[in-house]
Fold these 2 entries.
Entry 1:
Amino acid sequence: MKKLNTTKLMALAALSVLQLVLLLFGVGIMALGVPGVGGILNTVVYSSVIIFTLLVIDYPYAATILFTIFGFLSLPFPLMGTSGLLVKIPIGIVAGLVSDCLYALLKKNKLVCSLAIGGVVTYYIAVVLILVSFFVRIPGLMTFKTILSFTAFVSTMIVGAIGGAFGLFVYNKIKCSSVVRRIQK
Amino acid sequence: MFVNTFIEKQSIVYDLNFWTKLVCFSLLLPLASFLSPTDLLPLLTAIFILVFLLSKINFLNFWKSVRVYILSITVGLAALSTIFYTGALQERIIYGAVLAVRFSLLISFGVLFSMVTNPIEIPSGFMQARIPHKYGVTLMVAYRMMPLLSKKITTIVNAQKARGASFKFSVKHLGKFFYQLASLMVPLLHSTLEMSVRLSDALISRGYDPDGEITITPAKSSFYDFLLVTLSTFALIICILW
């Protein structure tokens, strides 16, 4: 089995920071009031960065480590839940474990793997965040619970799958570069 | 675009053990804020004010970090509770205000934790909990990379714009938007990985071994750690049982 060496660890650190910064950009767009764009962008970023990480690092638990680091980094920011919510760390760890399990099962067919992981993981994050919102009693959630579940299923699974395919597309563009080969060695 | 949230100061709160800060400011006290009856919210607010004053952080700096979240949460919750909550208008507004206070406490404790915790404490804290040091070092490096990466993104976006790229979202031209995104993501991911490889070379040349043994600094706990953990646990239990 390949070892988790210093190069892979630093790549995981860099990719988790990149995910954080890109998601903050999506949150900024949401704050400007442009409807839908920030959410779509964040869903695409989540799924494409997970897929890209799994394909580049190619190590068991790579996504789990990525999401654990991301969980700690995102504590002061409104990502994967509101600021200060410690529960975003276990949410991220479970998302990483789900990604790693799916990758281990489906990695022979990269396209199917990307679509599956992108859709499933983003759907899981959306559902868990809605459940957390029910726990903290956000007004109006019970009124829209049917629409929310439908919206979560359709939008996050489809957009997440598109994001996964996008991550595969980006990986195929740079997989032959010396940097990627060095990381995968 | 992005600033590290840690503020360097000397105070009792800064000298607390990493795990004390993480458990109290990110778990016990925020949980107490959500589970407490309305009558006990002033007590939790008083605890926050006491800890904030002991941390000696400038209020303006703190307010700059939290104002966007707190103001948007307050306005959003007030609007949602006025629309969806049942009862007289006064009751609905009070319900929204109470929920906004709970969220404000949660956000304030979380941001306070990030302001009083030096990123270097994270790998030390992990090692003291017998978590392999490679994960703590990775997390610490990630914290240090944040401002570097945001500058790199700005550079790449400006470089693409100088080449005639425009990043406008349009439902009619969705494919074009994703193509434009790819023109940004490919150089961004490549340069991110290049940065990580250079960093790993620097660590390897200095003899860092992720699986090697490392000196673990002993965990320091003072009377104030014990006091804060006891106070936070007591507050949580009171809030649940009240």
Entry 2:
Amino acid sequence: MLTLLSLDIVGSTFSSTRSLETSIYGIEDDFDLDSILMTNEVNSYVSCPAKLLRHILAIAQMPEDSHLDPAQQSSKNEQAVMILHSTEQFDPSEWASVIQSFSPCHDLNERRWVASAYKAATCLYVSRMLPSDHPANYTTQRRQEMVSTVVDQLSHLHPENGLFKSTSWPCFIAGAEANDPGQRVWVMSHLKQIYSVLPYKTYPSSMEALEMLWQNKYTNSALECYDTEDWIRTVRKLSVDLFIA
Amino acid sequence: MGKNFAPAKLPSSHQVKPQNTTHDFQPAHGNLSDFFTRGASNGNFSILHAPLIDPIFQDLNPSSKRFLSHYGRTFCKEMVVYDVPDQNPVRQLLKYARDHPVLLNAILAVSANHLYYLLPPETRQISIYNEALAAKQRAIQFLKDALSNIGNFDVNIMLAAVILLIWLDFIECGKGTWRIHLEGAKGLISHVKDHAGTQSVVSAAENSVRRWLISEFLV
């Protein structure tokens, strides 16, 4: 059941069909959900810290902007800002230390690198729920700094490490947000390396989606970094229910 | 999380190796966390500590034996971070496979599919792919049959089979079908919750699961 919930949460981030109701899994209140996600985070394939997964879930459960009146939109923005701030306060080092107590391996550094990448990627993801001109949203420079964080942290991981396969989600987000050609090359290389470890077509599908997004940027040549359309909505508009995890 | 202990640990270089090696992950000495146990127990599976035993492979054809072996030695490491012998809940599904054809065929399907794509394109055997497809179709048929008589089937076994079918889609495509399987699983969970202790009753949840199965047949 926990595997299904984790897949549902992560899968909802870029899926065109989003109907994430935790009550289906027998989870009726937030406290139970947090405990349950924490139970699964040690050995879950997704390897995303439970607290960040919880924030991703909260975003996934938000209604579409087109369904909201101004007051509801304002409320949604406030909630997104709260989630963003909470995500920014997440401490990857502290989390990695706690997880180490339950790990059969000495992998404190690896856990910290992956958690740091997930934190930066989750911040980028959550911030996309805000209007581009919202005061709490990131500047272009700040956004690129977070992309660099994802790239730097994941660059430490060796492909033979057990956590390597679990880094496609933050890697994809970094790729979608990256303006620097060198970082885009790194993202593609990282996804190809994951594909060499796991022969799953989901990785080539992710790379195709990134190529499409980058081409979209180039067609908006008037802007150095496109912000005319939310890339997350672009991926969802593909209607292919892309799964990246 | 509740538990606190200090087992002897392995260096991180002893992490699970990629599937194309024969490295065997050794468990840490002393007591291990019960998180893996808890992970398996969430599916209400009892924890069995005996290694894989030959009866699983008896009276199966050579191809099926090969796929089950591949599943146990290679594939099931990929669904977890730490592959601890006797504590990997994915590997432990093998113990239930012989008694539950839906699970056996889901395992055969995902393992054969995984093996097929693991091989370099020039060495892939279409016969393996065809066996994966046939096993997948059998698994879906068993799921369909189970829905008609849900009171006599272990829902957790069915959900385990669905998770494996989701994984099969990650391997084969990565877009679209996984969502169908996931929504079908959620419909199944919802149906069981709504009709706990009763015989199968036609309901909105059951209809959504049936539509999911029917769409699979049409594909």
